[in-house]
Write a structure and sequence with these properties.
Layout: H1 3-16, H2 28-36, E1 45-49, H3 55-63, E2 69-73, H4 77-84, E3 91-94, H5 101-107, E4 113-118, H6 127-140, E5 141-152, H7 158-164, E6 167-173, E7 180-186
Helix pairs in contact: 2-3
The chain binds S-adenosylmethionine.
S-adenosylmethionine binds at residues 19-22, 25-26, 49-52, 55-56, 73-76, 79, 97-99, 119-121, 151.
Length: 188
């Protein structure tokens, strides 16, 4: 889908789905910043929370090996349906809540995840759900695996990642609507 169509689709869903939590998809600047943190040629199992119209999904898939598996978990039915129609055989889309990721991955026989990327609005979750979700991600990642949280309007998740991951790195992207943080944790 062309970028202007993606922006229109995003805006339309934002108007009636509170969980979309952004007026437009991640900017190309934010996506570039995300990609700089990822070592995709060695990644085989990737999970994404909240792909939306798929701007990060497309960029990450472009760098992954041909035999990789990419599972995207999206609560918005219209976004999930549009992504399900993508012809990439590596991509599986589930119209589900990321808080159920342990069950979803078990249903798909996936473990030892290399990378989890997430742009869901963590501010909308309860403190307990945030803590549980980060602990679940940690348990699903292989040693050395990475959790990257991006398109976050505050550094709310930094302490959560610091409690769970050996190495945490924080960046800020001013060229996005709205300017936002990217926070990365690497599992020991
Ligand atoms: C800020 S938008 C980012 C969309 C896209 N990744 C991007 O970068 O343009 C957040 C996305 O997360 C989805 N979302 C919100 N809460 C979610 C949850 N608990 N589980 C899965 N997806 C969720 C929304 O529907 C929306 O598509």
């Amino acid at each position: 889908m062309p970028a202007n169509k993606k922006s229109q689709a995003f805006w339309k869903e934002f108007l009636h789905d509170h969980n979309v939590a952004a007026v437009s998809p991640s900017s190309p600047f934010l996506i570039k910043r995300l990609l700089r943190r990822l070592n995709l040629v060695h990644a085989h199992t990737v999970v994404e929370f909240g792909p939306g119209t798929g701007v990060a999904t497309a960029a990450v898939l472009a760098g992954l090996p041909a035999d990789a598996t990419y599972l995207a978990c999206e609560t918005n039915p219209a976004f999930a349906a549009a992504l399900t129609a993508w012809p990439d055989p590596r991509l599986t889309v589930v119209n589900d809540d990321s808080r159920r990721i342990k069950t979803v991955l078990a249903q798909h026989g996936l473990k030892n995840v290399d990378l989890v990327i997430s742009s869901i609005p963590f501010g909308y979750l309860s403190e307990n759900d945030r803590a549980d979700l980060v602990a679940d991600v940690k348990s699903l990642l292989r040693p050395g695996g990475k959790f990257v949280v991006f398109h976050q309007y505050s550094a709310l998740m930094e302490p959560h990642l610091k409690r769970n991951f050996a190495k945490v790195h924080v960046e800020f992207e001013p060229l996005n609507v709205f300017p936002c943080f990217l926070i990365e944790g690497v599992k020991e």
